[in-house]
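Might I ask for a little of your time on a matter of protein folding? What I wish to show you is a protein chain and, alongside it, a tokenised description of its three-dimensional fold. I should value your view on which stretches of the chain appear to form regular backbone elements. You will find the record immediately after this paragraph:
***
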Amino acid sequence: MPAIHKCDLAIVGGGLSGAMIALAVAARHPQLDVRLIEHGDVVGGNHFWSFFGADVAAADRALVAPLITHAWGDYDVRFPAHARTLTQPYYTVRSAQLDAHVRATLPPRAIMTGRRVVACSPTAVVMSGGERVNATGVIDARGPADLSHLDCGWQKFVGRELSVSAGHGVERPVVMDATVEQIDGYRFVYLLPFSADTLLIEDTYYSDTPALDQAALARRIGDYARTKGWTTGNPLGEERGVLPVVFGGDFEAYWRSGGDKVAKAGARAGLFHPTTGYSLPDAVRLAQLVAAQRDFSGSALHALTHDHAARLWAQRGFYRMLDLMLFKAADPDQRYRVLERFYRLSPALVSRFYAGQSTLWDKMRVLSGKPPVPVGRAVAALLGGGAA
């Protein structure tokens, strides 16, 4: 007889957003029975998540602090005609630490890994084999819904954590090294120095297509290391991903495609920075919003998460407009010029941009001066729409 469980809150998907909600609700409402349902064997999969110090409000830092595995006081960017160090704290979370913290914080019954979900409603989750969870409310955090409802470019990457036998000499994160050959759109290498002799090298592309040639990117990572004179061994770990860079679409249709009337979180709710793809700040904000609730019914959670995501979609039209210009107005191998120009602006403006909190003056400053893309193409891209 398939097991039937009852709980107050069922979270479907044990990635970053789902896990953050479980942690925040457990901290605020220890009396509630929370279940975190994940297809894989671990929480968080195999990922690194990074964020800037200004991305997370001071009141929310206690939630994310136990997850931080690496921290730096500043970071670098490098372009063919411009290089800069910006003073802004930068943090990284490893999925293994997320998994460990969730297991140390939540009771064993709350962590339901190795479950394949076949259906969910606002108040129930059905798994393969007939196992079922009946809940006061359900939040679906399983990843993107039907992206065909959105107009997207793609950010795709392969990252390898490597040991460098004689040390690498990288003092701080390099968020963008765009001095590399421009292939398949805007290409840059992302570096995270975890110790004097280990670092993550990630080959990243802002591309028109989601196709990811893992073997080719792995070779380019090796080539990059050799150009730096680094002797590396076998990878200590690897991550890969393809993320949407959204420049328009129908938010309501996208929301419905992920389950009508079902509360949502993470990419399924469209909660990520439209330009950078950073998702941890949104995950923290939504987790705290859910935890502040007293009504955990399916209908209340749906209204809460939908209205929050819809509000942010409306507020972030500026970033979608920039994405539209990046993908539709700039030649693929010249896209780096847009970012090169952007990183000449003030550090405070850059910080607010990453946090999704650009002021009106910031927006005017980003758009002022000589444009790094052809004016005619920029106008055509904007008149063509897509950023609504």
